[in-house]
Amino acid sequence: MTQIELDTLRERIRSMDFERGTPEQVALWREDVEEARANLVIEDMTPTANEDEMFAMMLEEGVPPSLMPSIILSLYKTGTHQIAA
Questions:
Q1: Most Cβ neighbours (<10 Å): which of 4, 18, 58, 70?
Q2: Is 33 within 8 Å of 68 (Cβ atoms)?
Q3: CB burial class (10 A; 0-12, 13-18, 19+) of residue 6?
Q4: CA-based radius of gyration for the chain
Q5: What Å distances lie between residue 70 and 5, 20, 41, 44, 66, CA to CA?
Q6: pTM of the full predicted structure?
């Protein structure tokens, strides 16, 4: 994954209109993300530090895990591996 500017991503997420998780939901999601990460490590697909920081930041902003892939995909310019400005 390309290095992501987390402050820029945080600003974009804060400007998005979606239902953010409650603190209780986020705590459960955090456990789920930790379990998913552990499974990735077992499969020898260890996330980078930047990816870990990105998912942690998304949870801090209350992003539901089901919405995370859509947000990540929206960052990229269509048909490229470059982050959209």
A1: 58
A2: no
A3: middle
A4: 13
A5: 17, 15, 23, 24, 8
A6: 0.82
**Cα 67–chain centre separation:** 9
Q: DSSP label at 13? A: H
Model pLDDT for residues 8-48, shown as the tens digit of each residue: 889 989 999 999 999 999 999 999 999 999 999 999 999 99
- Cα three-residue angle 58-16-73, rounded to 5 degrees: 65
Give me 40's structure tokens: 């990735």
Q: Return the amino acid letter for 60.
A: E
